[in-house]
Design goal:
3-stranded mixed β-sheet, globular, 5-stranded parallel β-sheet, 15 helices, single chain
């Protein structure tokens, strides 16, 4: 019996060593070898700053399937928050405002109120390069009510819940075609979010003392004891957890199903109708307040602008048709819009697109510092001064 256990143990060690070499190779090819994780920095900085609590960035989409008393629409309030790791694997932090968004300070009077997802939140950019800071270069004050992972329905709920706290002249809704239709198909299943759309006066009263406490409790429960997971993070940083090997094995069995499921959600006409209804509600609210309402289409990711595989080509065609569908509606409704993809296609190509987009872990990510400035400049020139 002892001999059998020894043989099993030796074979397990040999197998683990073999898999670990594969794990190292995968991470090397992805430029992720021994990269730090968000939890690594969170735990490290929390230990070195005992007087300052640091939180992880939170997105409402993570709780869509849960049965909750309230659905949080923003992150921790008045808190230092770890947003993401940038292209150099360095942490990006921001200090959230008193309702949990990435605004350096709460500005009541604004030229612009920005509604959107991670692009509006300023994902993977220091605050001096995010949209609020870029608009300031054009003498425009803005407040951003955006969180990474938001889709159109969460964005509308966020608008209804918080916009009354601000004075603003122009409302800009940012649409991210790469994922907004997919996100909306998930959001539409949430009863709380659909109440925002179906009932004119519905709100969760997120700013009440009671619901502020409940919101924090819900987010705390979601994150659990991540700040105590130092040794698990070490395992992750040095790849002992074989995460990429596990992802590779999983993708072999799930890739086709995931692609099929994504196509199915993109072709859901009910989702399209909900999207149009959301845009119409934004427009009605703007007309009632006598403010300007504009729509900005974020650019498709470079792999969708310049597809390299049949799957990417098919997905790109579907997304372009979706964009045309929304544009036709906006044209008929006389809502002004700007499509950054059109600008990029006219002025850039595959060889210089990395001037506008960052790559993180060998995958296309959000706009670069330069890209975010050009994006903002085009919004100003095409919408705000015409």
């Amino acid at each position: 019996m002892v001999r059998i256990l020894k043989i099993i143990s030796i074979n397990f060690i040999i197998l683990y060593f073999f898999l670990y070499l594969i794990e190292i190779g995968i991470n090397y090819n992805k430029d992720k070898l021994f990269q730090k994780t968000r939890l690594y920095y969170l735990n490290k900085d929390s230990r070195s700053n005992n007087d300052e609590k640091i939180y992880l960035n939170f997105g409402s989409y993570k709780l869509l399937g849960d049965d909750l008393k309230i659905l949080p629409l923003s992150g921790y309030e008045n808190s230092k928050t770890l947003l993401c790791l940038n292209e150099n694997n360095k942490p990006i932090y921001y200090l959230s405002d008193n309702i949990g968004f990435n605004n350096q300070k709460k500005t009541i009077k604004n030229n612009l109120l920005l509604i959107g997802d991670s692009y509006v939140q300023g994902m993977c950019l220091d605050n001096k390069y995010n949209l609020n800071s870029q608009f300031k270069k054009f003498n425009l004050n803005s407040t951003s009510l955006g969180i990474g992972g938001n889709g159109p329905l969460i964005e509308f709920a966020t608008f209804k819940e918080y916009e009354a706290f601000y004075e603003y002249q122009t409302l800009i809704l940012f649409i991210t075609p790469d994922n907004d239709f997919y996100d909306l198909s998930n959001e539409a299943k949430n009863k709380t979010l659909m109440k925002y759309l179906n009932y004119k006066n519905f709100k969760q009263n997120m700013t009440s003392d009671k619901n502020k406490k409940e919101k924090k409790n819900i987010i705390d429960l979601y994150f659990g004891n991540k700040t105590d997971r130092f040794y698990n993070d070490i395992f992750s940083v040095y790849h002992f957890n074989l995460k990429e090997v596990g992802n590779l094995i999983e993708s072999l069995f799930k890739k086709e199903r995931i692609i099929t499921n994504e196509y199915k959600k993109l072709k859901n006409k009910d989702v399209d109708e909900i999207f149009l209804k959301i845009i119409n509600e934004f427009k009605i609210s703007s007309l009632n307040k006598n403010i300007n309402f504009y729509v900005v289409f974020n650019s498709l990711y470079p792999n969708m602008l310049y597809p390299n595989s049949p799957e990417e080509q098919k997905l790109s065609e579907i997304l372009l048709n979706k964009i045309t569908y929304l544009k036709n509606y906006l044209d008929n409704d006389e809502v002004k819009y700007f499509d950054f993809s059109e600008f990029i296609i006219k002025n850039y190509n595959e060889n210089n697109i990395n001037d506008l987009f960052n790559k993180i872990n060998n995958q296309w990510n959000h706009y670069s510092r330069k890209g975010n400035y050009i994006f903002t400049k085009q919004i100003v020139e095409n919408l705000l001064i015409n």
